[in-house]
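Supplementary notes for students who missed Thursday's class. We covered one full example, reproduced here. Read the sequence, then the structure, then the short commentary at the end.
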Amino acid sequence: MSSAIPFICAPDYAFAAPWLAALQAALPQEHIVALDALDAAQRAECELAIVANPDPRELAMLPQLKWVHSLWAGVERLVEDLQHSPVEIVRLVDPQLAETMAEAVLAWTLYLHRDMPRYARQQAASQWLEHDYVRPQDKTVALLGLGELGMASAARLLAAGFQVSGWSRSRKAVPGVQCFAGDAQLPALLASADILVCLLPLTPETRDMLDARALAQLKPGAALINFARGAIIDDNALRAALDSGKLAHAVLDVFRAEPLPAAQWQWQHPQVSVLPHISAPTNRRTAAAIVAANVRRYRETGALPARVDKQRRY
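Structure (token representation):
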């Protein structure tokens, strides 16, 4: 009989019980339990764990652990915690997650495109004023990142009529998308953007990537959507760009500290829309099915799913 599979998450995680139920339903032949339900002997038998922002000290309680399956697509914290560990990391690759993100990218792009922040300010001032309409064909949405999330987002934006450009570390060819690659072509991508959408993973190379110099390369009056990680943007540079009018608006779903502390400037800035990290929530049903398929394959063949490259950090 297979050993139990511990589910390890942050102690204050509100959805631990629903995740346990979804994972157990998807893996009826397995025993999915919270770590504290296992005694020392049972923990010593565990080769894999399913995790959601786990405490590395709890992972260390599993001496035979070979791999962890994250319930999230973003795994930079896990990579940091396990950088020097032999434990392999498998991140969630869920087509539904990409579609959910693409939906959010399109929704908030349209919010900016149709000038909703300006009309909200006019409403607050009881001001009735119409502005000229601009066609989506006359605006370029630039995507930082052309992985699964970027590709799905590009398809939605193209279908809505926008011009789309995209940047990736290495060269890609995407039908209908003007593609840029590498550090040398990043300025050209930024200069093309009416709306810049950040979908990059957080790595040493992308940390503070959108600094004062990068933001200065955007078109005057461009807008920014960050659905990636907060640390990719230099917050002081962002605030300066908004205050100066260089940037018209920023939609921010991710921050360096989450939840965003009440004293942070983003909450009250008139040109910022703050979201509580909800652009692409993981769907428990589809994610549990993907985790289950990976676990069953491992039990049957001993083969691990595609692992995260700890050097590249994704």
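Commentary. The mean pLDDT is 96. Residues 190 and 218 are 5 Å apart (CA to CA). If anything here is unclear, bring it to office hours.
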